[in-house]
């Protein structure tokens, strides 16, 4: 057998090495399911990557890559159970514990994946700062009430209205089946390095266009829009002003000439500028942070000025991002809903007009189907009114008395930062 020259062997080895890709341990995999799934142990999960994954400025796993796993356990959701019991709902709410075990590549090959378990699954939406609100307290409460009404109408007018209406009717029952909702997402980290074959990397590379500047990533010649993963969890309940925070750049940013401005894997460093924990009487927590320094993988540092312009959130109906980058709980309707429930609760006590059944129904329905049955079957106006006032009292407690909601960002939350380079002396890299 003829032996190849040593230089030829070295060349072939270098080619294979250049083509192979290894994702390091700790790489975030943000995935979501595209259909409803039963809430049960052993349920197979077929999810898709929400965002592409880069290694050395090369997209190695595009968005929509299939990631498979299994529901390995069910954990009791105690806080939701308590809230539901107060409203006559005895559903044993649970949280699925999932683990992902494989990735299906573009060439059809399946690669084993080792990750930790995830329990924080929820549909994810992008928080975007709205324009500043106008008007006083009453005007804003009216706007909140109108928005709540629009959200309720969306049940029968929005996409998948048939399924949405069915689920809404289920919530009126004292017990209803639970499922893993469509678009539920998890972010898991690899526990071990993930090696991709040269053939798979080549397939992905040929399937993707040459990297160019994304349209949304260049506001002007000195402004970047950076996609990054938060390094550690943040909460308005525990974070302190001045606390250092770090995020890892998830996608490379390109200059107009297609050279790399900010490589994937760079670290952007900042600090919490304001953190207030939630308090009683419905006062929610607030959290504000900013980034001031960019550390490239080579160790080079650059001063920047960055603000939060977007963030993935599992609770878009509960959190709001203002135009200054501050995140706080979305204002609840503190007037319209409690006032409406109080008016309806008083209807059975009105003896001037007939229609006792209708009055009892609208009053007792504040506790859902079980309240409706009890309030109308008993044919006792005092009982129906009592159920109505009980529902109104719960609404008042949740909006005016109960401790407010804290702002929380989990580790690996996807952030969108608008970053402007600053012409100043480069700060030294902070000590680890």
TrEMBL record:
It comes from the Bacteria. Keywords: Signal. Residues 1-18 form the signal peptide. InterPro entries: T4SS_VirB10/TrbI. This is Protein BatD. It comes from Tunturiibacter gelidiferens. The lineage of its organism: Bacteria, Pseudomonadati, Acidobacteriota, Terriglobia, Terriglobales.
